[in-house]
Design brief:
The complex is a heterodimer of chains A (507) and B (282). Chain A is α/β, with parallel strands linked by helices and 507 residues long. Chain A folds into 2 domains: 87 residues, Alpha-Beta Plaits (2-Layer Sandwich); 341 residues, Alpha-Beta Barrel (TIM Barrel), CATH 3.20.20. Helices cover 30% and strands 16% of the residues of chain A. Chain A contains 16 helices and 23 strands. Chain A is globular, with a radius of gyration of 24 Å. The termini of chain A are far apart. Chain B has 2 domains: 83 residues, no CATH class; 151 residues, 3 Solenoid (Pectate Lyase C-like), CATH 2.160.20.60. Helix content of chain B is 14%, strand content 25%. Chain B is built from 4 helices and 12 strands, in the order αββαβββββββββααβ. Chain B has a 12-stranded mixed β-sheet with strand order 1-2-3-4-5-6-7-8-9-10-12-11, sandwiched between helices. The longest helix of chain B has 18 residues. The chains are: A alpha/beta (507), B alpha/beta (282). At the A-B interface, α3, α6 and α8 of A face α2 of B.
Amino acid sequence: MKMKSHLLPEFMIERDEERCDNCKVCVKQCPFGVHYYDEETGKVYSKEELCVGCQRCVVYCPRNALKVIPYPGHYRPNDYWHEEYIRDIKKQAETGGIILTSCGSARRAKVYWDHILLNASQVTNPSIDPLREPMELRTFLGRKPDRLEIELDENGDVEIKTELSPNLMIETPILFAGMSYGAISYNAFKSLAMAAKRFGTLFNTGEGGMPKDMREEFKDCAIVQCASGRFGVDPEYFNYSAAIEIKIGQGAKPGIGGHLPGEKVTATISSTRMIPEGTDAISPAPHHDIYSIEDLSMLIYALKEVTNYEKPVCVKIAAVHNVAAIASGMVRAGADIIAIDGFRGGTGATPKIMREHVGIPVELALAAVDQRLREEGIRNKCSIIVGGGIRCAADVVKAIALGADAVYIGTAALIALGCTMCQRCHTGKCAWGICTQDPELSKRLNPKVGAERAYNLLRAWSLEIKDVLGGMGINAIESLRGNRDHLRGIGLEEWELKVLGIKGAGE
Amino acid sequence: MGMVVRLRDPFMDWVRRIDEIINAVNFEGNTAKIDATGLTHKELNDLIRLCVEKGADKIILKNVCGQRYIGTRLYFPGKRVEIEIYGTPGNDLGMFMNGHRIVVHGNAQDGVGNTMNEGEIVVEGRAGDVVAMSMRGGRIFIRDDVGYRTAIHMKEYREKVPVLVIGGSSQDFLGEYMAGGVVLLLGLNSKKHRANYIGTGMHGGVIYIRGKVEPYQFGKEVGIVEMEEEDYRRVEGLVEDYLKFFRGKGVDEKLEVDEVMGEKFTKLVPVSKRPYGRIYTY
């Protein structure tokens, strides 16, 4: 016999009876079934134990009658046996299952971005006003040659003699991170594709394939992923892309695979992934043709072969303990771009234990990788993209000064589309139409509106980056790349400063 | 500055320009013959692609010795080329291949038909590990044995159902994670199959095994079901093709379909389309 866990609600709903006119908007807006209308009394009530705190009903209530606040009641306060542990244990005692969650790590852990401060010009070199002077954010991603041989023709024009590897050109050092159609709705997926195209940057298909109807239109701004599940992977998919990314790991769940549950494999998902409707889309933990750096090299060159050496190949890994050595191997294996996803990186579903306890902060991983590749003299062989919790333009600037060529934004992009970080992506009931395959819920996000908002975010951050660059007296993002002199640490230990390769503030 | 570090690239180093290696090609009508002696992986594939661009529909490769990805760089939708290989092709033969036909007069290495999309590969010998991994269309026939992790995560979608026929036996993890397609293991050269963990995590497709195999050799996600009329018809059709391809080429000229079909067949299908659905709490 099962004993119910009798958990405390996570949120409390306060309905202002005077304001509420029982219009039922909240009933309609909530996909979790919190609000309900009672025919007998003619009134709307709430089952607050079902509330996930997404705040959809609050902002959609035409009369501002609702307040959703963290539940004030709690067990006896205990700094060690935090309520979250008690809650999880009770659930697991009831079901015997793994705790599933989504989004990125929510745990309290040192955020290195917040311990790094940026520099500005004062007296000794002039700052630049980006409103009046050109400011270059254009970024090229891909392998750069060891040396450049040039030739002057009879007119005195310079011709590059060295054969160059294919590079990606983006107008701002920000790309949308891999989020599959399946994890997110078609409308969310398309919003990011449209925004990337309009801004002149790239989006990433994630591992769920590329819908056929989008291939022609978005082929020049798509990074297509080849992950362990090889979903939706065929030669056309690879050839309709700007670049290919081999996904080895993800910051939110390093070392494990994943699966899209059968109920989310709808007709259109099934045709994009090229698997039957209703079956689990299982991504094995490793690629079963990659058990070593040599095997990785084999896949990298297989992808170059299938695309006739016309596209750069990126390899994405989660930031883990030996990330620098692994990255070195990846570059030696032939990766043109390496992507490093920190432990704050988001996901549509992951066991909580992976999200909260596995992997390392991307700031440290990035600094270690950049340093290692420089020491080995192979930094020019690849570009570095980092992701995993980039929250604002300042994080972007700090990442680039630590050595990144560009950043991936996933969570931030979804927040631009409406996400409020309720961390219920894995339920597939996203109230904002983002992380869902429910046709009714998906309709809540209009791709045109979504694209506009994602575009605006890119614009806003790019303007802010230019401002900061100008303040430093730099007029091109190139000059900031790996320029750690522009960073100082506060509240960091000696070893942390050493790993980050930066001085302490005042030093 | 310190010394200049030279990163050795085992794949791209020593690759010569087309005009330096073009002598290896001999064109006769629509048939191109390439002598692969001394060619790197990329050089050979550069030449194969060039031949197809110049209109070759049949390519004969001589003295192949470990060159990888043969057939991969031929993404020409609608075009079908036949490639005959003498020697031993390297890993990932026909990886991502899109509609061509490859015949190997000899053995093949790892990754034959890896994530192959369409076409046919016939190997008159044995093949290594991860044959037909993630294969999603077309057919592969291997005359003898295959290595580990064969047909791992093979998939199907609607009319696209990949087929793998193995004349000999397989090593462990045959059909692991298999999500679709048809695998036929004939066991013509062995008394008993050796593979363990057959079909572990299988959630789609079907595996037919001819000859002796014990229940302990199967993964826990597979179920053994009775062969039906339709299964026998399907298997018989594949056996006919197998014998057509290999009779007199290592398989006894006199071996008849009936003799092969006379042995016991075991049919394996997944227990569930969702093997890992119940391991999470709410």
